[in-house]
Predict the 3D structure of the following.
Amino acid sequence: MADIEIKTEDKNNPHFRREVIKTVLIVFLAVLLVLTFCSNTIRNKSLAEVSMERTTSGKLTERLRGSGLVESNQSYGVTVDGNKVIDKIMVKAGKEVKKGDVLFTVGTEENEEITEAEDALAALELEYNKLLLTPPADYTEENQAIKNARDDLSAAIAARDKAAANQGNEDVAKQNYQYNKSQLNYYTKLQTKLTSMVTAIDTDEYVGAPAEYTGELITLLNALNDAEKAYSEASEIYTAMLSGGNHFPDDDEITTEPAGGQSTGVPAGREATATPEETESARLEMEMAETARDTAKEAYNNRKYELRSEYVAQLEDAENNVDYYTSLTEDYEMGSAGGGMTATDLDEDVRQKQRALEDLIAQLDKTQKEDVNKGKIDNLDIEAKKKEIEKAKTKIKKLKEKNSITEIKAEHNGIVSTINLRAGEETVPDMDVMTIDIAEDGYTVKITVEAEKTKKIKKGTEAEVVNNWSGDIEAVLTDIRNDTTANSKNRVLVFDVTGDVDSGSYIDLSIPCGNGSYDSIVPKSAVHEDSEGKFVLVVESKSSPLGNRYYARRVPVEVQASDEVSSAVSGSISNGDYVITASSAPVKAGDQVRMNDQ
């Protein structure tokens, strides 16, 4: 009783109560601090993650890109006096010719007898080539069949001998065989199911897939379809309000018949004009539906790809097991224990395979003798056809000798640029039958560019040939001219081109516009443009009780120069500022962002 009284007095002691209050307060503050740090971590995870690069200063080489047609500096056309028929063309476009080379021949008139003789020769040559294309006798298939028969016979003999030597182990081997066969059946079925499931995931069609694998994915896919449907309905309502200004009430407000009793075909209540509040509410519902749809799509795709990786790994394991147990069962069936056959069966199997081998050898011998005789007959036909071709060629030669044929030769060394007629066509006076470029005089490429872009380009500048596959093409700027096209303010860059090029082809050029030193150089990906002009997003740090926070600040800039990867800019930006080059989500000025850990 005395002890109870003492404890009661301690509880009423003011010092004891202060200690209790202080302890409770410390615990409360600790819990509040933990919750504060956790909430800050969760908030940071929801922020857009950005990649940044520091603004630098230095030199930058501007380049101008363009493409042009390769034209010969000097060329001449080959003509024929009068109207004549092209007999034969000896060259092709792009071929190099020397002075005095025969380019083509012409005749005074078309000779029907020559045409008929040439047609007959072509028919003979076709028949001759068909005879030559007759493939030689090939006995690869027969020899392979004989080899396989020998292997089968050897295997049958080995199986028979091994079965006789291992008769005592037959029961154990059969038990192992049955087990291996059951395992093979199990993994084969598993392989089929996993293959079907991977195909179903790739096509998003789960109708024929195994039910034990599809449950979760079908649930996620149905959720995605429902979210897609909800978004589509919300979008239709919002679009209808924007386009027609009609208010669509809830289903319990709709009346399909007016007071007169005659149906109008339009639900009653849909003629009322939608208020701005209703339109805004519809827009918010549409955006919520869109967010739900995107979330459902992401959940479905993430789980789908995760499960696909698991199923592919399981499929690979199943395929390996199928191969493994297939090998074990085949080893048993091919000879480990006689394939379950009795000694009498094995002896009969050896005799049958021996007879099969002998039949194949006899058939091959017969076929070879028949092919030898056929080859002799084919050789006689080839020789006879060859003699007919020689006679036809002699006849054509004599006919052409009777007909006036003129050779047209090259006047200068050069390269055939274009051929305007074909054999059998008739020439016209002063018409160029073909054009030949004089390669020694070189080639020219002209590129039309904006006049403003030529201010930094000087004559004598060597341009880089982008599609210089041969590696020996050079292009040097020789002239900058005004574009003579009506109302054009452009200028024409003229390049002297040397190397392995052909007239009429196109080459792509990259032209340096000079070096410049700039205070602020940023990656091209950091420069953006909208209706207000070009800008970059600079990351700024602000201190808070929980540490530094980072915000995106818009800085208007002007692009002074650019190359393939960087841009020199001017504006309220300094060397060393960090600019955003990429982000995990859209970022606008004033947004808080999260730094890329890498």
Observations:
- The chain is about 45% helix and 25% strand.
- The first helix runs from residue 2 to 11.
- Residues 1-6, 246-271 have pLDDT under 50 and may be disordered.
- The longest strand covers residues 506-523.
